[in-house]
Amino acid sequence: MDDFQSAYQEEEQRLGHALASIDAQLQQLRSIPVYVGDDFTEQTLEASREERRRKLAQSAQEPYFGRLDFEETDKELMPLYIGKLGVSNVDGQQPLVIDWRAPIASLFYSFTGGNSTSYEAPEGLIEGKVSLKRNIVIRQRELERVVDTFSEQADTPVVSDEFLVYRLGENKDNRLRDIVSTIQAEQDQIIRAMKNTALIIQGVAGSGKTTVALHRLAYLLYQYKEQIRAERMVIFAPNMMFIDYISEVLPELGVGDIQQCTFADWAAKVIGLETVPSDGSLGLRRWFDDEARNAGSQAEPIYPGRYKGSIEFKELLDDYLLRIEAECVPQLDFEPWDGKRLSRNEIMEWFEGEYKYYPVARRKERVLARIHRWVEMELKKSPSAAALKERKKKAQQREKAYAKKWPDLDSLQLYRNLFQVKKNADFAVEDLQARIPTAVWKETKDSLKKGNVQEEDLAALLYLYAGANELDSKLTFDHIVIDEAQDFSPFQVAVLDRFVRGHSFTILGDLSQGIHYYKGIREWQEMQSLFAEEETVYYALTRSYRSTMEIIEYANEVLRRGVGTDLLAVPVFRSGDPVHLLHASEENKLALIRQGLTKLLEGQYRTTAILTRTLDDAKILHEALAAEGLSVNLIDGEMTQYAGGISVLPVYLSKGLEFDTVIVTDVDAEHYRPQDAKLLYVGCTRALHELWLLYGDHAPDYVVTEV
Ligand SMILES: Nc1ncnc2c1ncn2[C@@H]1O[C@H](COP(=O)(O)OP(=O)(O)OP(=O)(O)O)[C@@H](O)[C@H]1O
Questions:
Q1: I need a surface site. Which of 580, 586, 659, 703 has the fewest CB within 10 A?
Q2: Closest by Cα among 547, 552, 579 to 657
Q3: 206 marked among binding-site residues
Q4: pLDDT of 389-422, one tens digit each?
Q5: SS3 364
Q6: Do 539 and 198 touch, CB atoms closer than 8 A?
Q7: Is residue 499 a contact partner of residue 466, using CB atoms and an 8 Å limit?
Q8: Residue 6 burial (CB < 10 Å; 0-12/13-18/19+)?
Q9: Which residues line ligand 1 (CB under 6 A)?
Q10: How is the beta sheet containing 632-634 ordered, strand by strand?
Q11: Most distant CA pair in the chain: distance in Å?
Q12: Pick the residue with more confidence: 278 or 637?
């Protein structure tokens, strides 16, 4: 019997033993009648039994995916079996399967060869030696595959990528999946990083940023179970379709209830806007489809979105908030009835003294309540019942009138005041206005006048809200994930920092995919500088797991030529077809697209994207393909679900997604301007196995047409 056969047999036996133990525990739990009564203690016990039943039933299908033989210094060698959920043996004394998030399981991911290794446990650093790292595929209780990625016995004992490459070669369906069995060391480091840190992650396309962020949430919930709750964690994602695309990973990891939304949806809810400002799809269209808007301009223009997302604007609002506080109390005494007076000085004393540490809207509320109490005390001193009645009536009217003299501290009203939308401003703002670029000021004022709030105004509105009001604990988070963070502004992150405890952020993105030039960041330093040095850690992920080597090398060349960046992806050694570079004309375009669809139509692949430059192009192509009898989905930015199969979409909406094959159409100078290299890079890097590029007569300089 060779080594492989004996390993397989050994694992088959061990699997039988593990399944028998899990089945026995499950049976025992199922034999306990389900409690349906009203006793609270019994209900709690029943809930925990139900949770165990659910977990054991899940483990009974695929109990583990890896084995690590670890010999702790001066202790016996222990084969550790690692799975998505931890399971003890029948008597509950020994671990049968170790949860992938447990400290010791980190060895499975961080071990990269060598004689000694260590891991961080709650009791300190544990040292020892690894003699075997084995990947085990179990599907529906059957052992399918055993691959040793490290063995001390091997001739060249190094950790190999064999299993990873096997996994990456699989076809994907229309959902992102968990990667617990193949998390790489550099990804593991991010997943297990300390909770109270603002992690900033620059990761090349396909480096697993989104996936890693989702695994990190599962890890944090496991590691800090006493301190955090799933409902108080949030993922900010670019659109609802993307949220649908990632929706299976967390349930696969046994995690539910984490909030997932766009920043605009969440912000509009907090501020109480009736409609969510149109983001993305409309804004993007205007920008990407309007060639004229950029033509010829060399210097960077002032983009209102960049300005309103800047720390400079935040600082202006800090000054504005100080002004609001200083000018909030009306310049008059309060007279509940003739002859009785509460001076403004006294009112100011309350406002500035006792209530000083409350946010201004709360202070206003407190002061008005105090005035009301003062009135009631004074009323008691009335000389007669008739006088009391008369005074009471007057006081009621005057209290109302006096309250109206106070400014409206609703954040939208404050913002409108800053842009002088109202005739009689509550606060003097001329000096502040002078600091806002005129074009931005005018555009914003016009838009607010029409009753419109734009997406780029949301950070400021939230900031005014958070500055003026006491934040309800229901509004604050235990952890915030920001995906595609290169399209976020520093101000957005700064304002989110007000809504999270301990700067607990996972901020991920890729500057090479920063296609929303009019609002995103240019350097990660713009985000890092928001935090003190000890509050933030920066990681760079450079290995790309999604695409074949051929695709990554091609996409890298686009970046090298078009952007001159050094943020290039390093491929995992997985080879596939050369990139299909085809000259296309209006006449043969559909025929070439059909060629690119072959494997999907034959059932070998499950997803193909045809990427156009604009939404209008996508609509036209969608119609043409549908007329040929193909079943094609048009993705237009308004969709909330991603169905897989053949999709036609503008390239800018493909961000974050991936497809077995990608066909990029219209790659010519008319559709791709010199500044669109990043956009093309995004398109190319969506492909897992095949990339087809249909270029026209005049391809931009950054497009290689021969390989
Ligand atoms: N360690 C890993 N093992 C197996 N697959 C992995 C691993 N890391 C990432 N992947 C796969 O690589 C692909 C890309 O992952 P993901 O979408 O999370 O990357 P990303 O960095 O967010 O990409 P992009 O910025 O290009 O949208 C996914 O199919 C994911 O399953």
A1: 586
A2: 547
A3: yes
A4: 999 999 999 999 999 999 999 999 999 999 987 7
A5: helix
A6: no
A7: yes
A8: exposed
A9: 164, 167-168, 172, 177, 179, 182-184, 187, 203, 205-211, 510, 513, 545-546, 656, 658, 685
A10: 580-583, 687-695, 659-667, 607-612, 645-650, 632-634
A11: 110
A12: 637
The per-residue DSSP string of 219-273 comes to HHHHHTTTT--GGGEEEE-S-HHHHHHTTTHHHHTT----EEE-HHHHHHHHHT-
Query: Can you tell me whether residue 149 is helix, strand or coil?
Result: strand
Q: Token pair of 73, please?
A: 């210094």
Pairing of strands 95-99, 87-88: antiparallel
Q: Is 229 exposed, middle or buried (0-12, 13-18, 19+ CB in 10 A)?
A: middle
Residues 370, 373, 378, 381, CA torsion sign: negative
* Nearest in space to 238 (alpha carbons), one of 567, 649, 520, 618: 520
pLDDT tops 90 at residue 603: no
- Indicate whether this model's pTM tops 0.95: no
Q: Phi, psi at residue 689, to the nearest 5°?
A: -115, -40
Conformation bin of residue 533: beta by default, left when phi > 0, alpha when psi is -120 to 50:
alpha
Asked if residues 82 and 108 have their Cβ atoms less than 8 Å apart, the reply is: yes
Give the mean model confidence (pLDDT) for residues 213-222.
96
Classify residue 5 as exposed, middle or buried by CB count within 10 Å of its CB (0-12, 13-18, 19+): exposed
d(C-alpha 149, C-alpha 153), whole Å: 12
CA of 659 to the centre of ligand 1 (A): 12
- Give the bridge partners for 477, in sequence order: 500
Cα-Cα-Cα-Cα dihedral of 308, 312, 316, 317, to 10°?
50
Among 215, 164, 167, which Cα is nearest to 187's? 215
For residue 699, the 8-state DSSP code is -
Q: Is 204 a known ligand-binding residue?
A: yes
Residue 288 has pLDDT above 60, yes or no: no
- DSSP letter at 455 equals G
Whether the CB-CB separation of 157 and 113 falls below 8 Å is answered with: yes
Other Cβ atoms less than 10 A from the Cβ of 345: the count is 8
pLDDT higher for 110 or 92?
A: 110
First-to-last C-alpha distance (Å) of the chain: 47
Give 630-647 pLDDT, tens digit per residue: 999 999 988 888 888 999
Buried residues in 408-440 as b, exposed as e (16+ CB within 10 A): ebbbbebbbbbbebeeeebeebeeeeeebeeeb
Round to whole Å and give the CA distance between 233 and 496: 12
**Closest-CA residue to 70 (of 112, 116, 102, 101):** 116
Mutate-to-test residue for ligand 1 from 545, 551, 568, 659, highest number of ligand atoms within 8 A of CB: 545
172: number of Cβ within 10 Å: 18
- Return the closest-CA partner of residue 609 out of 487, 552, 693, 700: 693
The best mutation among 162, 211, 510 to test binding of ligand 1, ranked by most ligand atoms within 8 Å of the C-beta, falls on 211
DSSP state, residue 328: -
For residue 151, what are its two tokens?
């063995």
Q: Which of 188, 240, 197, 235 is nearest to 215 (CA)?
A: 188
Q: Report the SS3 class of residue 191.
A: helix
Does the annotation flag 450 for ligand binding? no
Q: Whose CA is nearest to atom 26 of ligand 1?
A: 205
Task: Work out the pLDDT band at 284, boundaries 50, 70, 90.
Answer: very low
Q: What residue owns the CA closest to ligand 1's atom 24?
A: 205
CA of 210 to the centre of ligand 1 (A): 7
Instruction: Read off the amino acid at residue 601.
Output: L
Residue 82 tokens, joined: 């690692």
CA 640 to chain centre: 16
